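>> received
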Amino acid sequence: MTTQLAAHDAATADLHAPLTTKEGWRRFVEQGGATILDPATPGCPVGIEDSRLAYHSQLAVVATPAVQQITAAGRRLVVLNRQQLSARRGLIVNGAAGTGKTTAITQLGKAHELALRLRHGDHGPRMPVIYVTVPPAATPRMLVIEFARFLALPVTTRSNLTDVTEAVCAVLIDLGCELVIVDELHNLNLATRAGAEVSDQLKYFAERLPATFIYAGIDVERVGLFSGTRGRQIASRFATIATKPFGYSTAQQRDQWCSLVATLEQTLQLHQHRPGTLVNLAAHLHDRTGGMIGSLSHLLRAAAIDAIISGDEKITKTSLAAVQLDHAAEEHHATTRTGRIRRRPHVAPQTDKASAG
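>> returned
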């Protein structure tokens, strides 16, 4: 009984482990194989309510142009860097919040690791990908501890920065790490002493580890990432890819947005939902979300959960209106509505000719 409880506790711990731990990352990589959904992929069979609620609570990952571009660029860099002894090239994914940066870089890591498993199998211990985030107000020690936490290396208050750094590098080299993904880069400010020291620590890791470094952050230029001597060195070694909201002003942009909506609609598990309903509401959905894929995913998944709970089993424009989105999306929607009202042409009121005479 004790053994069963211990196994249950371990399984539960792994289930809730964040991506910034080896357990959480392993679960993410192994969860259902590749999770990128192609527009031709049909939804899963409709099941019982609890299963469907759980299903819609998970983020469906779509192979958007940004995800495809970042995955291709990252895997290309890994190959180019394998024979480099120093000055390896990297990639910075930069953009506003909610534009899919974290989704894209984690899908890059997942695709790379699955490809290596397919090519080499699971022979011996390997850790080809590591995923960490830069803590707020980070110091070099805090950053190194994030690396150590992912690897489950013991760190005590007496452990000095050099010892922990050396331990992290030794383990990652032994495990064949090829891709280091560092998220939340906007928490690093090169204008401060601590930020500059964290940047130096990342550079040291990049020199010591035979790996490709992928950074992601919000508007990284504004935190001075490319300013000064350190910034110029980063700019000379890292390519940048910007993630942006989906536009809706050109025919190509509308086609891309409609394709995204159609793909997400195909993943729904609702009894009474008529396919094509959401595609017909594509313009409205863009108004509601500002073209942000994160907001769109939340809106549709929340509306699907409401449809199951209420028993309606379908998503309508009315049910979409009941979902409260993030502040940025709601503010954009209010601005768009105000703009439409202001642009409404003025129609002069008709007068009764008899009374006027």
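>> The longest strand covers residues 212-218.
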